[in-house]
Amino acid sequence: MFEKQKRIPVIVVLLAVVLLALLVPAAFAQQLTVQNEAGKQTVLSRTDLEALPHVKVSSGSGGAMYEGADLRAVLEKGGVDLGASMKGKKMASCLLVEAADGYRVVIALPEIDPAFNDKQFVLAFLRDGKVMDDSEGPYRLVISEEKRMARWVRQVKQLKIVAVQ
Questions:
Q1: I need a surface site. Which of 56, 79, 104, 110 has the fewest CB within 10 A?
Q2: DSSP H or E segment with residue 46
Q3: Are 25 and 36 members of one domain?
Q4: pLDDT of 78-126, one tens digit each?
Q5: Does 35 lie in the same domain as 25?
Q6: 136-153: pLDDT as tens digits
């Protein structure tokens, strides 16, 4: 009887360790790093992103409907100034979008600013109302009115502001 009482807590502890090992990497996979022009990094969680204004973008006629946070709001939450500050040297700044698989694209920072462009830039976390699978999510950059989807980055992990020298 004494042996069985000792085994139960050990099994419970082992189960808890296994659950933590499974949940912790999933939580980190949901994080997004935003680095502003000064090099300061801000880590945003899925909850942070879901609290931002939502935007929907279609991938074309009969295509998928993507929903997520307005990229401008994501950048501002990460300490990136847009709007009236977009002048002078900032006009030669870019957003470097990095994916988990190493794919990277560059977007001129003024292109994202609504004072310069009407395109919708969305950091999507839903496709057709459902959470994206690992091959596409947890986050995907979606840009309205793009003729080619080469800048629609899957598995976005970092947004980084870089100055063009």
A1: 104
A2: helix 46-50
A3: no
A4: 999 888 888 888 888 999 999 999 999 999 999 998 888 888 999 999 9
A5: no
A6: 899 999 998 888 888 899
What band does 25 get if pLDDT is binned at 50, 70 and 90? Answer: very low
How far is residue 123's CA from residue 142's CA, in Å, rounded to a whole number? 6
Tokens of 61: 């006629």
What does the block give as tokens for 40? 């300061």
DSSP 115-156: TT----EEEEEEETTEE--TTT-S-EEEETT-SS-TT--SSE
Q: List the domain range (segments joined by +) for residue 39.
A: 31-163
Which uninterrupted H or E stretch holds 159?
strand 156-163
Residues 118 and 146 placed together within one structural domain of the fold: yes
Question: Long-range contact list for 50-53, CB < 8 A, 24+ apart?
Answer: 50/125, 52/77
Per-residue pLDDT tens digits for 32-49: 999 999 999 999 999 999
Domain count of the fold of the chain? 2
Supply the CATH number for residue 78's domain: 3.90.420.10
Are 86 and 144 in a shared domain?
yes
CA distances from 23 to 29, 121, 138, 154 (A): 10, 30, 15, 22
